[in-house]
Write a structure and sequence with these properties.
The chain has 416 residues and is α/β, with parallel strands linked by helices. The protein contains 21 helices and 9 strands. It has helices at 20-30, 35-45, 54-69, 73-79, 84-98, 100-114, 123-136, 138-141, 145-162, 183-187, 192-196, 201-211, 220-227, 230-233, 254-268, 282-292, 300-308, 312-323, 326-340, 356-359, 365-372; strands spanning 244-249, 278-281, 294-295, 298-299, 350-354, 382-392, 395-398, 402-403, 411-412. Helix 3 (54-69) crosses helix 5 (84-98). The longest helix is centred in the middle third of the chain and has 18 residues, at 145-162.
């Protein structure tokens, strides 16, 4: 049964909504090397917050720490240079990274409402999403109606105080910021947040053009150094709710990249790292899946090879259906689980997924990542997807020629 210990959701926003002014006053303490001592003193002596209840001060401090730690320290150095409207949007960024409940409300409800005809948002919209979450998560289902109501109200408060929701009309609105205010998110490979700010794809492209933001892929050596860094090996670093990372490379270097992946794995297993990265060839796993599936006395793999000689179009349709099925995604999940459960004494923070090109047109990148979300355990690993192509605006181009739709929330591994 799902409980608070393995559910990704928390209702802690009920005790601490946006609180921009309070957070800004506490931020210097969070950035100080004596942070633990300073925060303890603040809870006890109320020097900065000026909140009468010590219990409330402790709650605020706990949630401020959660938000601060949800993003990199370099973000807060950037944050203090921003205008207040840009800081409010920056605080929203940290909140989305810190609370999966808020993240899901935003992407499953708010953005959909923004892309609808009315472009309004009310509490009933959020409560309908709560019903869906309750059906999938027993811990959320155990919350009282009052708790759910307060969570929904606090989320709406977060939107209003960040500038995305009008107070009187409940109309959604994009923030009015300078182009430079978005530059950090683009350079950090966090373009999904521009979508979270209710910007349209053409606006995102315009921002990149105006600022001439060039997202240059890491070199092979830079990527290895990044993978070998203790900070990135920590599965709790980065986006703790969306642990997908994409490394793009020219399609012409496909075979070179396959060899490089083997070298990555071998080098990471050395005593200086003690990392056992899983190499998962998605196409090979798909073939294994078809061989394991029975169609009468034969495997689905054998039947497919036979039918392809006479009915290739039908086979393409069947393979597409199988590749997009929950049975296959579950099979991939089981393979990853087997790797993680191996008792070899090594750390296992990475799942290297390749073979994306070989899966085309049966399974597209964004579809795979979306379907795998229900199985994804962000507390155990990071998924590094090696993609033979490049980015065009908010979409990916497979083999540098074919449209492969978008993967907004995946973090691109780029030079910043």
């Amino acid at each position: 049964m799902m409980n608070k210990y393995n559910s990704p959701y928390s209702a802690t926003i009920t005790g601490c909504a946006f609180l921009y002014n309070e957070f800004v006053r506490i931020l210097p303490l969070l950035m100080d090397e004596n942070v633990a001592e300073l925060l303890k003193d603040e809870v006890q002596n109320n020097r900065i917050l000026q909140v009468n209840s010590q219990k409330a001060r402790q709650t605020f401090i706990n949630e401020f720490k959660r938000r601060y730690c949800a993003v990199s320290a370099s973000f807060w150095v950037h944050f203090v240079t921003l205008s207040e409207p840009a800081q409010r949007i920056g605080l929203l960024y940290a909140i989305l990274k810190a609370y999966k409940l808020v993240f899901d409300f935003h992407f499953n409800v708010t953005i959909k409402r923004w892309n609808s005809v009315e472009q309004t948002l009310c509490k009933n919209d959020i409560m309908r999403e709560f019903s869906k979450l309750s059906s999938m998560d027993a811990f959320v289902d155990s919350w009282t109606n009052n708790t759910k109501d307060r969570c929904a109200s606090q989320y709406l408060t977060i939107l209003r105080q960040s500038g995305l929701l009008q107070e009187k009309t409940d109309e959604l609105q994009a923030p009015r910021l300078e182009t430079s205010d978005y530059e950090y998110y683009v350079r950090s490979g966090e373009e999904w947040f521009l979508e979270a700010c209710l910007l349209y794809p053409y606006e995102v492209n315009d921002i990149k053009k105006k600022k001439a933001v060039i997202m240059k892929s890491m070199s092979i050596q830079e990527l290895y150094d990044y993978l070998n860094s203790p900070e990135f090996q920590n599965v709790k670093s980065g986006n703790i709710f969306y642990n997908y990372y994409i490394y793009q490379y020219p399609a012409a270097k496909e075979y070179e990249m396959r060899r490089q992946l083997v070298m990555f794995k071998q080098n990471l297993e050395r005593p200086t790292s003690f990392v056992n990265a899983m190499l998962l060839d998605l196409f090979q796993v798909f073939c294994d899946y078809l061989k394991a599936e029975k169609f009468g006395p034969d495997s689905l793999f054998d039947v497919t090879l036979e039918d392809d000689r006479t009915q290739p179009d039908m086979v393409t349709a069947e393979l597409t259906n199988e590749a997009n099925s929950d049975n296959f995604i579950s099979y991939v999940h089981d393979r990853i689980g087997q790797h993680l459960d191996e008792n070899d004494g090594l750390n296992k923070p990475y799942i290297f997924i390749h073979g994306i090109g070989k899966m085309f047109p049966y399974l597209r990148t964004n579809v795979f990542l979306t379907r795998y979300e229900k199985y994804n355990d962000t507390s155990r690993y990071k998924i590094i997807l090696f993609y033979p192509g490049h980015q065009e605006g908010n979409s990916f181009s497979l083999f540098d020629t074919l449209d492969d739709a978008h993967t907004y929330r995946a973090t691109l591994l780029v030079n910043k």
